[in-house]
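Deliverable D5.2: sample structural annotation.
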Amino acid sequence: MTEFEWPWQYSFPPFFTLQVNADVRKTQLDAWCALVTSWGKQGGVTQIDVTEASNLAVFKNASINRALPPDGIQVVLDELVKRGNLEWTDKTKRRGYLLWRSAGEWGTQIYKWAQSTSRVNTVCTLYELTHGDEAADQEFHGLDGDILLKALRTLEASGKAEIMDFGDNQGVKFL
């Protein structure tokens, strides 16, 4: 895996202070959202815990001795929620799924793989999808299990898959 390439804003001290001017703030939040989602994608980060967020490298640049304050982090996370890139996992909004793709986009990608590998009308375990050798070159390989289930539920809702339970294991039949 290559090292994450930080955007220029990450080395610009004012980036770590949310701006008051509405137009500037919108541009700044666009940059923060792009940064957090690309950082998550590159690093395979699928969950963010609010209580630990201030310790994440994405919100703290030690080389310029700057960090986004907790209230700024909350504003960025709230913006990610509005854009569909963060989904809270609990009612207290302390932990959330970081989605650089929507569940529907993941579902589409998984279904295209199933079609291209002749998996339609066959059953795959969820383990095979996220950890199997045959899907190792796919972007969904290693995907968080909860996000995978959300993606498969979108396929199930559109009649393209059926999620199955096998006791301690789960699978999916692509239709």
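Annotation notes: The first strand starts at residue 47 and ends at 49. The CA atoms of residues 138 and 165 lie 24 Å apart.
The annotation will be released with the project's public dataset once the embargo ends.
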